[in-house]
Amino acid sequence: MPEGPSVRKFHHLISPFVGQQVVKTGGSSKKLYPATLQSLWLQDTQVHGKKLFLRFDPDEESGSPGSNPLPEPPQKGARKEETVAPEPALGPSRLKTSDESCPSVELDPSGSDVPEGLGKIPATGAPQWLQVSFGLFGSVWVNEFSRATKANKRGDWRDPVPRLVLHFGGGGFLAFYNCQMCWSPSPVIKPTCDILSEKFHRGQALEALGQAQPVCYTLLNQRYFSGLGNIIKNEALYRARIHPLSLGSLLSASRREALVDHVVEFSTGWLQGKFQGKPQHTQIYRKEQCPAGHQLLKEPLGPPGGFQRLTWWCPQCQPQVPPEEPQQLQHP
Ligand SMILES: [Zn+2]
Q1: Where in 74-184 does DSSP place strands (E)?
Q2: 325 is catalytic
Q3: Ligand 1 centre distance from Cα of residue 242 (Å)
């Protein structure tokens, strides 16, 4: 799924449409009923981690004056975060990411069983936020549709079908692909956890990393590292020279700090590259060798019963901690 830098780019693409009315809708979403967005005004958009939030109001006037953010350059990051509600306390056993917070599962292309009412815009009152979570091939397109880049197994060139298309009064349109959408009363992700937010709280992140569990599990936990995905995980661990299965509690404070530095540096660089049209350079993700020429190891890693993510590491540049322990994962 797109990681924080990609979703921030989507947010940047959507921002110019804030303040415009939806004049026509389309898309394949069976849960959301795209037609319910007809005539609503897009009054705000926010990005938190890997999620986008779009606020719709029935009236043009209901948006607070001057609240519409301008398209935001990546360096400035003048985001609005005052509507963020606190998150419920997190129990220590809770290892799941917050990616499942949408009540509907729309990534299934069949989209068959549709519970009644889930997609209806909630009762009026508070402003309504459309929460968008992206799937593996999730994307947002502006004023054009995604096209097939290759034929499928049967040899057909079939273009991807957007989940949601919003045509605006200004003449432009947005198309959302491979995403899961639901209504929420407010964006409920803390900006202090967002690795690309100015409010990202390093102390909180360092504390989370100090848990007695493999750091590669903690890094993907969106409650602590919102926006961090598998590419950032692999690259930051390599750059910090930390073995993915190192227990955070065994790492020194300075090594944990170095890891957080690499997370932020890599993510910020990736985001800036996106605005300059440059692809992000990876050192080990999907590679055979590390930059020093060592053979990489690759294995699905994740918490017991949790999602296992393919992880790359260099057994020489990223030795197990503590080093005196037998290195069962050492490459011959
Ligand atoms: Zn190496």
Answers
A1: 128-142, 164-168, 173-184
A2: no
A3: 11
Q: Do residues 149 and 225 share a domain?
A: no
Confidence of residue 62 (pLDDT cuts 50, 70, 90): low
Distance from Cα 317 to the centre of ligand 1, integer Å: 4
pLDDT (tens digit per residue) in 278-289: 888 999 999 999
| 54 CB-side CA count, 13 A | 30
Render pLDDT for 148-179 as a digit per residue (tens, 0 to 9).
888 888 888 889 999 999 999 999 999 999 99
Q: Could you tell me if 25 and 140 lie in one domain?
A: yes
Identify the active-site residue in 3, 51, 214, 315.
3
CATH number at residue 285: 1.10.8.50
Average pLDDT, integer, range 131-141: 93
Residue 324 in any domain: the answer is: no
Residue range of the domain that includes 19:
4-184
Among residues 8, 9, 50, 239, the one annotated as catalytic is: 50
Strand residues in 30-127 grouped as ranges (E): 41-48, 51-57
CA 239 – ligand 1 centroid, Å = 10
3 annotated active-site: yes
Q: Is the pLDDT of residue 92 over 70?
A: no
Is pLDDT above 60 for 218? yes
SS3 at position 204: helix
**Residues 5, 267 contacting (CB under 8 angstroms):** yes
List 2, 5, 162, 244, catalytic entry:
2
277 CB-contact burial (10 Å; exposed 0-12 / middle 13-18 / buried 19+) = exposed
Q: How far is the CA of 285 from the centre of ligand 1 (A)?
A: 13
Domain match, 160 and 282 both: no
How many angstroms separate the alpha carbon of residue 283 from the centre of ligand 1? 10
Whether residue 155 sits in one domain with residue 75: yes
Selected catalytic residue, list 30, 96, 298, 309: 309
